[in-house]
Amino acid sequence: VPRPCEIGLNRRGLGVGFTNEAPKEPAYPTSRADTVYKAVVSFEQGGWHGPMVMYWKSGKKRREVTYNRGRQEGEYRLHYNDGTLQMVASCVDGVRQGRQVVYYKGGEGKIQAEFWLVDDLREGEALLRYESGALRAKGTFVQNGIVGDFVTYYETGEVNSETAFTDGVKHGTSVWYSKDGSIKDEDVYEAGECVELCEGDER
Questions:
Q1: What's the rounded Cα separation, in Å, for the pair 85 and 105?
Q2: 119: Cβ–Cβ under 8 A, 6 or more apart, which residues?
Q3: Could you tell me whether strands 159-166 and 183-190 are parallel, antiparallel, or unpaired per DSSP bridges?
Q4: Gap between the Cα atoms of 161 and 32, Å rounded
Q5: Residue 139 and residue 149 in contact, taking contact as beta carbons nearer than 8 Å
Q6: How is the chain split among helix, strand and coil, in percent rounded to 5?
Q7: What is the pTM of this model?
């Protein structure tokens, strides 16, 4: 998933491919083969200021972002090439902050993943979901690294696996379960390397 708060345009870069009109067919020429732009921005105190919308050549929105004197500010949206929403995040003074939500393509608002960010780093609980809405996995991040148990689920709700992490790497026991709760496989990791019970894989 593309990261927000990274779309920067210097003064020289605003040129081919930008227009103050909505895109039409055929699409306006652009330096990117698959994107046209609609810019409603001014150059103020050394940076772009105002909203900017980027479109797929089909005319459907691709990205929506707002600049505040050169830095991205507020809600940021990405769209798949079919026009459906891909991701919503927020920027504060050019840095990702707060809740980040990723959606399934064509899923009419069905959530695929939810994260929380502090100063551009994932912090706190992260949730992954099946397209049905059922919980697929959950874990906890500290400064962008998973800590503690990362748990995955069958779509019917039973625990599929539990894996221990320290500072973003596997460290401890990983266990995989059948739907009836019986253990299918078990491994022991140290600093990301399997050190025990690694001889087979019954998953």
A1: 7
A2: 95, 96, 97
A3: unpaired
A4: 42
A5: yes
A6: 0, 55, 45
A7: 0.75
166 vs 172: CA distance, rounded Å: 8
Work out the burial of residue 100: count CB atoms within 10 Å of its CB; fewer than 13 is exposed, 13-18 middle, 19 or more buried.
Answer: buried
Do 61 and 79 contact (CB within 8 A), yes or no? Answer: yes
Burial of 141 (0-12, 13-18, 19+ CB in 10 A): buried
- The rounded Cα 93 to chain-centroid distance in angstroms is 19
Q: Under a CB-based contact definition with an 8 Å cutoff, are residues 30 and 14 in contact?
A: no
- Residue 8: CB partners within 8 Å, gap ≥ 6? none
Residue with tokens 């003074």: 93
- Judge whether 135 and 127 are in contact, CB under 8 Å: yes
Q: Model confidence over 97-141: pLDDT tens digits?
A: 999 999 999 877 899 999 999 998 999 999 999 999 999 999 999
CA-based end-to-end distance of the chain: 28
Q: Is 156 exposed, middle or buried (0-12, 13-18, 19+ CB in 10 A)?
A: exposed
Q: Which two tokens stand for residue 12?
A: 């020289």
Q: Counting beta carbons within 10 angstroms of the beta carbon of residue 24, is it exposed (0 to 12), middle (13 to 18) or buried (19 or more)?
A: exposed
Contact 140, 153 (CB under 8 A): no
